[in-house]
Amino acid sequence: MPTVAAELQPHHQGDSPADEANWWRQAAVYQIYPRSFADSNGDGIGDLPGITAKVPYLKELGVDAVWLSPFYPSALADGGYDVDDYRAVDPKIGTLQDFDGMVAALHAVGIRVIVDIVPNHSSNRHAWFREALAAPKGSRARDRYHFRDGKGMNGELPPSDWVAAFGGPAWSRTPDGQWYLHTFTPEQPDWNWDNPEVRQDFLATLGFWSDRGVDGFRVDVANLLVKDLAEDLPSRAELELMDRDSGTHPLADRDEVHEIYAEWRKVFNEYQPPRFAVAEAWVESPVRRAKYASPEGLGQAFSFDLLVADFDAGQFRRIISANLEQVRLTGSTSTWVFSNHDVARHATRYGLEPLKGRKVKQGTEWVKAGGPRETLDIDGGIRRAKAATQFMLGLPGSAYLYQGEELGLHEVADIPADARQDPSFFRGAEWDGLGRDGCRVPLPWEPDGPSFGFGANGAHLPQPAWFADYAASSQDSDAGSTLAFYRKALALRRLLQAGESMVWIETGNADVLHFARPGGWHVLTNFGTEPVDLPRGEVLLSSVPLNNGRLPGEATAWIRV
Ligand code: BGC
Description:
The strands form three sheets. Strands 9-8-7-3-2-1-11-10 form an eight-stranded parallel β-sheet. Strands 12-13-14-16-15 form a five-stranded antiparallel β-sheet, with helices on one face. It contains 17 helices and 16 strands. The longest helix is centred in the middle third of the chain and has 18 residues, at 313-330. Helix 10 packs across helix 11 (313-330). It starts with a helix and ends with a strand. It has helices at residues 4-7, 17-21, 48-53, 55-61, 96-108, 127-134, 196-211, 236-241, 257-268, 286-292, 313-330, 346-349, 360-368, 378-393, 423-426, 472-476, 482-496, and strands at 28-32, 65-68, 112-117, 147-148, 171-173, 179-181, 216-219, 276-279, 299-301, 335-337, 398-402, 503-504, 512-517, 521-526, 538-542, 555-560. It is of the alpha/beta class. The chain folds into three domains: 17-121 and 196-490, Alpha-Beta Barrel (TIM Barrel); 122-190, Alpha-Beta Complex (Oligo-1,6-glucosidase, domain 2); 502-560, Sandwich (Immunoglobulin-like). Bound molecules: beta-D-glucopyranose. Beta-D-glucopyranose (BGC) binds next to loops. Beta-D-glucopyranose (BGC) binds at residues 78-79, 81, 118, 184, 220-221, 280, 341-342.
């Protein structure tokens, strides 16, 4: 008997120039946080040769692309999102040669490479920031950042009372008395995008990595680059009252930012196939988001709507319909994501009471409380996460996965204060409290040994004892493991994806969503707890075993009808 997968023929061969240029439209993209993926030299920090060594694992997982969080030289004031040099590799992580080797190895197995570009701010160790500090007030070097005189008799007060994203003031004072703006930590001074040298330098960076063969870019806080810093700065209270949805807010999502991305697009289009980009832009509305996804701009924008939703049929349906409508207007495709390096893992969010209210905030609250394991429904969280992921992998558009979710990892909450790294922990960010280290703990590759096979010695963040139960090597040969489930789902998805449409099919049950994709691929998710009937057809995959042919609660099935 042939297996189901063998009977199916891929709908895309992916080798015509048009297919080549559109590879990203329905790609499954796996996010790697390089310092926590695999450590090849035993220094406790994941590195690029570590990624290269895991290429067979990534191939078997079945992803179309990887997105690497920053691997540039950095003092890690913000996990690498404080970049010292945009066109180099952190020596603790590898060399440019290692980078080339990694790209070649990934490309050899058909996996594309997306790198993270951080254009809102550099680090305070960047050569241009050092030059700015050494240069006098009003100099050309200072114009590349936002330097201002302070208020008060001697300029001893910051230019405004703005608060930085991870807590504390958004302005820091320099030894000569001026102040500079930083939306994030003081180690992350904001670039001045009105400065032509800054613009040129980023174009050079895009060319540098594109020439080295990267296929695309994930653009960090793409909505913040352009600022209107008028003579009289508004107060924090005034800022909060300002409309963030009009393109005229002084600090966020200003319309002029799209002029920058139009210039970037010209660089992307100089390559064959054109380089791809996806905007990280937490903007107010899908309409604003669509501007980043324009083909004249970055081309695609992250939708975090599912990530912040509850595990709830009604919410999922509304979000998906709204997002598909928006991408129809731009000609882009939607993106779906449940986990990344900034939020508590979705297995954990979905394992917390109340089970219908599993928003990101709730995961954060749980982490803040020290992550009491007795309040977490460990298996239930994984069950719901798998159901949600299988549902999402059935949707048209790109699916973004975060390292470790394929192992069913939960958030690590009990990291001692002196081992934590995230600035939002140390700076007491209002939106958080313990920070994002819990989803950045190095992966367990083996059930035992130093750092669970992450490297030959320890890991730069402490791994909990329970990681032993989630090791990739143990799941590898276990047909019932979460890893085996992800592999099957990704392999089938590749075969089943055809066209970019979907049609809702009414189920008459408010807890059950059902949609059909071209080619007779049906996706049915039961968000409730009672088993439900499936449409007639061949069940290709279900997130939990069926119960007498019926789909149990909190589960998804793919059916070929
Ligand atoms: C990244 C974060 C980072 C911030 C500042 C984000 O949105 O995803 O990890 O801390 O930008 O660069």
